[in-house]
Amino acid sequence: MKKASLAGAFFVSAIWLCGAQAACPPPDGLSDVAVQRVVDGDTLYLSDGRRIRMIGLNSPELGKRGRADEPFAVAARQRLEALVAASAGRVRVSPGKDDRDDYGRTLAHVYDQQGRNLEEQLIAEGLGYLVAVAPNVDLVECQQAAERKARQAGLGLWKKSPVVRAEQIKAPGFALVSGRVDSVQRNRGGIWIELQGSVVLHIAANLQRSFDASMLKGLEGRTIEARGWVIDRSRRGAARPGQARWMLPLTDPAMLQAVLRQK
User: Fold this and answer.
1) For the segment 195-241, what is each residue's pLDDT rounded down to a tens digit?
2) pLDDT for the residue numbered 65
3) 10 and 262 in contact (C-beta within 8 Å)?
4) Which residues, 6+ apart, have CB-to-CB distance to 160 below 8 Å?
5) Two domains, one topology: 22-158 and 163-260
6) Domain ranges within the chain, ordered by starting residue
7) Which pTM does this prediction carry?
8) Which of 7, 141, 146, 165 is the most exposed place for a label (fewest CB within 10 A)?
9) What is the distance between the alpha carbons of residues 211 and 260, in angstroms, rounded to a whole number?
10) What whole-number distance in Å separates Cα of residue 106 and Cα of residue 119?
11) Is 184:219 a contact under the CB 8 Å cutoff?
C-alpha cells in the first residue's frame, strides 16, 4: 500500500464519511470447492482439507473453555452458514499473498458462486470488523466501504459503539481503541505512538514504508482510533519501568484513523 493511501484512512470527525459502496471483485479463474463445515464467522473447513481463515474480516469469538460467546458471534457464524448454503454449499477461494497463518490455516478471500465476496457481506452487515494485515490488503478499500455502511447504519456490532478508551484496556485480545496521542517516536524497532493511558501503538520497522511518517508525527495531540490485537507486554517481559503495559501492533494504515478534529 502506498504512502498516499494513509491520507485516505484518516478522517476529520468521528462520523465516517459516506461513499459509494465498492464491490470486492473476484479474480478470474477461480474454481468452486465444497464447504465441509463453517467453524465461526470468519473460518471454514473445505472438503479438500483446507482450513480457511477469511482475509480482512475479524468476527466476534465464540466462547471457549468456559468463556461466554462475544456479542454477535453466533449470529456471524449463522450468517456465514446461510451465505454458504445460498451458494449451494460451494465457494470460490483466492489465497492471499501471504497464504498461511501461525495456526496452519490458509489465508484467503472467499466468494460465492455468483462472485460476491463473503467478507464484504459480513462486514457490511455489522457481523465482523475490517482488519488489514500486510501484505494481504488488496481488498481493503472495498472492505472499508462495507464497514462505513454498517457503522453509519448502526448494524450488528455497531448498534453500540465497541470502541474503548486506552485507559480502559484490561486484557489482551482484539480491540478498537481510542486515545489522545502523547508522542510519536522512531527507533531501530520501528515507530511508537504513545497514547494517554497505558497503551502504545507499534509499527514494526519492516512496515514503516507503508505509513506516512510526517502524517504520523502530526498526530501528536490529536485523538485517534486504532484497531488490532492488544498484547500484554508485562507477561512477555518486554515492558520496562515507565513503559506502557499494553501494546497494539499496527499492521497497515487502514488500522488507524484520526477521529476528532482538534481545535
Assistant:
1) 987 899 999 999 999 999 888 989 999 999 999 999 998 876 665 66
2) 78
3) no
4) none
5) yes
6) 22-158, 163-260
7) 0.87
8) 7
9) 20
10) 15
11) yes
Burial track 134-154 (b if 16+ CB lie within 10 A, e otherwise): bebbbbbbbbbbbbbbbbeee
Grid cell in block for residue 94 = 483466492
Look at the block and give the residue holding cell 482439507.
49
CB 260 within 8 A of CB 222: yes
Strands 173-187 and 43-46: unpaired
Rounded Cα gap, residues 211 and 156, in angstroms? 31
Taking CA atoms, 157 is separated from 43, 120, 151, 164, 217, in Å, by 18, 15, 8, 13, 31
CATH superfamily of 163-260: Nucleic acid-binding proteins (2.40.50.140)
Burial 30-39 (b: 16+ CB within 10 A, else e): eeebebeebb
How far apart, in whole angstroms, are the C-alpha atoms of residue 224 and residue 244? 17
